[in-house]
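Hey,

The postdoc asked me to send both predictions to you directly instead of through the lab channel. I've kept everything plain text so nothing gets mangled by the mail client. Protein one:
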Amino acid sequence: MDSKQKANGREFLKDSLRLQINFASSDQNCGIAPPPLQKPPRAEQPLIALPGEPDWRDFAGTDLLQAIKARRSHRRFSLQPLALAEVALLLWATQGVKGFAGPGSALRTVPSAGCRHAFESYLLVSNVEGLEPGLYRYLPVEHALVLERASSAEALANQLQPASLNQSFVAGAPLVLAWTAIPYRMEWRYLEAAYRVMLLDAGHICQNLYLACEALGAGTCAIAAYHQQLMDQLLGVDGEDEFTVYLAPVGKL
């Protein structure tokens, strides 16, 4: 990045922080119903139930202070598969629903500006016990999965390699979590300021993933370097009304 690009980027950031927005004109204040909490499954997609809290007792007892101290990014994973209960815990820790706060609003395990929670969670599964390889999506309201597209582990790796800018440890992980943003969920309340708080929310999600991995003896590495178009295509999103924001490969250490 040259000095001109840096200066332009800094000016854009400063201008965004100075935004003066008339929130009275938001869809929320105009009486328009909020968007749904999650993308509904298609009619032909059966729900895949996930293990819940009773099945997580074996993971209890992790000291929070030690988890924070031990937290780090890992780029090497063992060949050991992840258990379905472990994947379920990671999904609940990052986007799980604890209660409802009104139409289109849920209380989750992570904070979100205005309780808007703009993200969808996708799973690129190569080696998880109880799941065939393929692309899945998490339904936090039901604490369940739907299969978006079946694929072989090899085919997934071949698509992930260029989409993650040839970071081979991403393509080789047994599980890659990918979060997409549906900006209207946040724009409904915050208009042009939506993207600012949306990106803050992505950090909340991934930090919970890091800490939950400590409870499982697993590791992860947050990834913001990826090919936008290829990742959007891999996840089957349009890149406009829904687009990739963040990735995190996960594996046992």
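Protein two:
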Amino acid sequence: MPSLFRLLIPKPRTLERDTLVFTLDDGRSIEILRVRDPRARRVRLSVDERGARLTLPPRASLVSGERFVREHRDWLMQQLALQGDDEDGAPLLRDVTAQLPLRGEQLPLRWLEGRYARLQREGDGLVMQLPSRAGNAAVRRALRDFYEAEARADLGRWLPRHLPTLPRAPSRIRFKVMSSQWGSLAPDDAMSLDLSLVLGQPSAFEYVLVHELCHLIRADHSPAFWREVEARFPEWRAQRDYFHTEGRRLKAGLRRLLA
């Protein structure tokens, strides 16, 4: 029978989040997302394109969590280095960033002063026009608008080829910065696609589109579903392998550009 003392201890029913500032051995200070999860059974440290995360079970103390991070600081530095080891991962800095990723390539970027914040294609490169007083938020918004416009242009080329073989079209398609998935289809046939798809090779982007379109026919991942994918995109396996090797880099690159 549980003791009265245990019954009096409040149990968190939702995730509790705060930030732990930790100093690495090389002198850098990083912010670690600290999450107290009522479902967690042990202390866990993880790193992905969003940064470092420390997960604590309900009864773990903050001191024990910090001690866990210190004990695993070498592993933490290695994982952070892996996340940052790519050309596409630098933040977007006004008058500093000289190239941007798009469709598997690095395109040269020029910075000009203009009346509106706008990023556009010019020849084989890109031009970012900004008012003199435009802040970082305006720069990031212009970049995101540009990437979404380019992604929708790709959809405009691919959808006419695939829609005639489907029972219906998606109710709408929107682009999001997704943490793990590349796409999803909601019960109301609304499709979500990861905006970082436009940074990678176009064939991989088209595969994700076809994958989600096939969920309009089969909502599962049964052999029948994969036959539908195979019929429309026979090279899907190669694109899946591409995501296994390049996917984390693409997601991390977009997040840093928009950070």
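Summary for protein two, as requested: The chain has two domains: 4-84, 136-257.

Thanks,
C.
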